[in-house]
Each structure stands twice: as C-alpha cells, then as structure tokens.
Design brief:
The protein is of the alpha+beta class and 127 residues long. It has 3 helices and 8 strands. The longest helix is centred in the middle third of the chain and has 13 residues.
C-alpha cells in the first residue's frame, strides 16, 4: 500500500484502478516464488503504480475479497504492506492499463468498494 505524507502532515494513499472493472484499489498481486511477501508487494507497487520506496516487512492490515476469474470466483487473502514512497518512475509496466491517483486516507477508504480494504484503510494507524 503506497503512502506519502502531505505538507500538512496528513497521510495520502496511492490508489490504482483494476484493469478489468476500473474500480479503485491498492496495488496488489499474487505471491512470487523466491520472494518474501513484502518484497513481492514492493514489486507489484512498482509494476502497477510506478512507485518505489521503503517497504515494511510486517503487514499493517489484512483483508479478503472475491476475485472474478474467467469462469469462477476465487477467495483471495491479502496482506497489506506499507510502502513509504520515495520516488515515482517516469514509466512502468502497467502505466497505460490503470488510472492512478493520490488520495487522502479518509477519501481513499470511501472510494474503494471492497469492504475489507475499506475497513483496513479506516483502521490504519500511522505516526
């Protein structure tokens, strides 16, 4: 979950749209062999949102959702790893496939449709 601190000290979250339904969400992906979960999360944030920074090794939240596949639904369990963004790339693999925008934490929670992600965003405690 990419975050940054605005000039007023408030937390902003970078949301991206899903490729198929164009709903707002946080960058996420499947586990990657030979990568620890937090490193895989950092890679997904780079590929989906073009951001790099410091990733926390322990999840700051978790939620579950039903992912629509071609012919069925799959229950996905998501761990949210906080990525404090330090840089934004000029180009990244999925730039043309998704919208991306920084939102205040409270606005981000209102915009996402997944109830579990909404709850995780609302309960996020940062310094």
């Amino acid at each position: 979950m990419p975050v940054r601190f605005a000039s007023d000290g408030s937390v902003e979250v970078l949301l991206v749209t899903t490729r198929t339904t164009k709903r707002w969400t946080v960058p996420k992906g499947w586990p990657i062999k030979k990568l620890k979960a937090h490193d895989a999360a950092a890679r997904e944030a780079r590929e989906e949102a073009g951001v790099v920074g410091r990733i926390r090794k322990k999840p700051v939240g978790r939620y579950m959702y039903w992912k629509r596949m071609a012919d069925h639904f799959l229950l996905c369990k998501v761990k949210l790893f906080l990525l404090t963004v330090e840089d934004r790339l000029d180009t990244w693999p999925e730039r043309s496939q998704r919208l991306h925008h920084w939102f205040k934490l409270t606005d981000a929670a209102d915009l996402v449709e997944e109830p579990g992600l909404r709850a995780a965003l609302r309960s996020l405690k940062l310094p």
